[in-house]
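This is your field. Pick holes in the following sequence-structure pair:
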Amino acid sequence: MQLIRAIIRSEKSATVIKALFEAGYVAVTKVPVVGRGKQRGIKIGDITYDEIPKDLLMIVVNDEDKDFPVKTIIEAARTGENGAFGDGKIFVSPVEEAYTISRGTKEL
């Protein structure tokens, strides 16, 4: 299994979650986060904002399914046709173990 973590613009969260749902990926965890990427924040006038609010979306998928939700996230989270700085980043990493708390069972 693979854990997909997407850090995206907060205003894109609903669109991305809806696109994932429509693609059959209904289990999503959303966490508000702050940080900055390569652009080192934004400067408005004399003020620099180096902690930009974003949302972190996390989903777990089967190994063979990881490419489709990644593509779905990119398409739904991208600003405009060509994207823009600050649209976000996606990280994919293996899940070694998973447990369902209510049943106490191991999923992998």
Remarks:
- The mean pLDDT is 91.
- The chain is about 20% helix and 40% strand.
- The radius of gyration is 16 Å.
- The longest strand covers residues 52-61.
